[in-house]
Amino acid sequence: MFRPILRAQLAQPLMCKCMQRRNRIGVVLDIDGVVKQGKRAIPGAREALIRLREERVPFIFMTNGGGNTEAQKAAELGELLEFEGICSEQMLLSHTPFRPLAERFRQRRVLLVGSAETAQVARSYGFAVGTMAVRSTQIVKGTEDIFPWPRATCDLPAINVNAPGEPPIEAVLIFYEPADWALELQVITDVLAGGHPLGAEGAGAAALQRAEVYSSNSDFLWQAGYPVPRFGNGAFVCALQELWLKRSGSPLQIQEYGKPYAVQFQAARQLLSQVAKSNEFEQIYMIGDNPKADVRGANFAGDPWRSMLVCTGGAGGAAGGSGRPFGGVERRKTKRGGKNMRMFWAWSFSP
Ligand SMILES: [Mg+2]
Fold first, then answer.
1. Do 129 and 60 reside in the same domain of the chain?
2. I need a labelling partner for 82 at 20 to 30 A (CA). Which of 155, 203, 303, 311 fits?
3. In angstroms, rounded to a whole number, what is the distance separating the alpha carbons of residues 65 and 93?
4. Per its UniProt record, what Pfam families does this chain match (predicted)?
5. Of the candidates 228, 256, 284, which is a domain's last residue?
6. What is the model's pTM?
7. Mind listing the pLDDT tens digit for each residue in 138-187?
């Protein structure tokens, strides 16, 4: 896709602009669909990063993905792209802004929702995993018949939420979409309902929601290795909202993190400032493939953010409404008529 209106904007190489004011430009890159697709690097991504480094343009990665620590993600990405020096300080995962919640809930019990690695991630943020920050699998393991289907055991200690003296679960932190939706949805709705035994309350109109809910991203779909996008955390949250509404008669109250929410873009700017050792930016370019998350979020964030839409990911470059990008990236045809997905944006975008 190539918009004629952008032709003039794209004509001037980045190098010239950066040489003039490189200290005032920052770049924030989405990961899936921008520098990689599934387990494959997108051709040209490595060269783009090399160019940014050569031009001393500070950059970080901001993804609505998660499920592992920032250090692991940085190492994996560096290996995939064969690009040395990506560090955890350049990595903003969907759940990275959950880090301060560890202190807020230090003395209160919370439920952690996500992939198998969520315990390790939460531990790295300072949560007391296994005791005050618990997994649904611990509850299923220790609370008889709360989930009436056989499931894999978990390594963390069993917890009987109905035992005398057990603290109430005061918040649900959704780090990442879990693999076992059925188990998680049952336990979460029980936690939201409260009561004794857990889940006894919460039936009927205007029922109280007895736990706060934090969700790390709202992407309904994401581009994995499979040719067709897969359900993401937003789809899981949709299912939870619908179940809670049907059960309690009240809409779910939820605090959303991740792109396109302002809290995530504030965190990105903070991280970029640390990398650049300056908070003085004339432009911060959000390079993304998702109009609803990357483009809309950057547009809502306002100055100095600029949204740039690449055509290599799930959206295929289509944008509209509030997802209209500030700029775009060409997708060229090869001589054989196939799509040339090379990411040449690092050479071609300009304010
Ligand atoms: Mg993406």
1. no
2. 311
3. 6
4. Hydrolase_6 (PF13344), Hydrolase_like (PF13242)
5. 256
6. 0.80
7. 999 999 999 998 876 789 999 999 999 999 999 999 999 999 999 999 99
